[in-house]
Amino acid sequence: MPDAARPPRHVLILGGTTEARRLAAALAPEPAGAPEPAPAPECALRVTTSLAGRVAAPRLPAGEVRIGGFGGPEGLARWLREHAVDALIDATHPFADTISHNAALAAATAHVPLLAVRRPGWVPGAGDTWHQVTSLDEAAAALPALGTRVFLTTGRMGLAHFAHLTELWFLVRSVDAPEPPHPPRMEVLLDRGPFTLEGERALLRAHRIDVLVTKDSGAAATAAKLTAAREAGVPVVVVRRPPVPDGVPVVEGPEAAAEWLRGLFSAADSH
Ligand code: NAP
Fold first, then answer.
1. CATH code of the region 9-120+243-269
2. Which of the listed residues 67, 98, 172 should we mutate to test ligand 1's pocket, taking the one with most ligand atoms within 8 A of CB?
3. Which end of the chain has fewer CB atoms within 10 angstroms, the N or the C?
4. Is residue 61 lining ligand 1, measured as CB closer than 6 Å?
5. pLDDT tens digits, residue range 184-242?
6. Which one, of 154, 39, 143, lies nearest residue 95 by Cα?
7. Do 130-239 and 9-120+243-269 fall under one CATH topology?
8. From the CA of 217, how far away is ligand 1's center (Å)?
């Protein structure tokens, strides 16, 4: 039972992903009449999600929301202290490397327990032709040998890595419009997942795509392009994920994160 005398426990979710939104929905108090969320910890919670502010019109999660950088690990540590955060959940995108390292440093400085939520990565299946690389620069270096009409799905922020590939044509899909530097020969498709298999097949056909570039984001909402590429015999350059910072515990989804919080707070209650 919640302890009426104690202020609610404060959970900060570093967001920008479907998992972060699902976790906030499961933890945050719901308006009356809303469908029952997944079981939350047995105590009153205050849930804040932090967004970087990269997307012009983000899908807002349940609970409180703050938008914008913290000012490095020191700024994040300060925020944790000033807002009396009891637990920090890094549910950022697997490729949002800097904020994950900042979270590890800030959590250690402010003595706040930290958990990372990382959806499982994609695994190649029979019939896939994958070229696994460790960076966008390596992806760019691999492209000229693989094709001339590229479907680039790595996001608008990394386009500079492909800007020197003047001989290749790019179909770039992103949520917001990219800014220079970018490849000179490109068409931009402004769209946001989930994407259907039928839609991805049609895109590959209509644009005569002969190579696909993707990060291993592992999301179900964007996995159909891999199936479409396999069916069409299109090779895929897959950028591998950076590792989670050393010593940070990891779970695969929001359910396990809620379970971790429940364990954390009930252990604290028993002391
Ligand atoms: P990043 O390179 O790891 O972070 C760069 C800086 O952005 C951080 O140092 C931090 O600024 C700020 N930041 C990042 N995430 C934040 C958050 N959730 N709340 C407040 N500040 C945040 O991050 P990124 O790759 O640019 O990604 C930005 C956001 O977009 C992340 O939240 C991520 O979940 C989401 N996203 C990223 C990708 C991707 O492919 N990278 C894809 C989909 C969604 P300060 O140092 O000033 O605190």
1. 3.40.50
2. 98
3. C
4. no
5. 999 999 999 999 999 999 999 999 999 999 999 998 888 999 999 999 999 999 999 99
6. 154
7. yes
8. 14
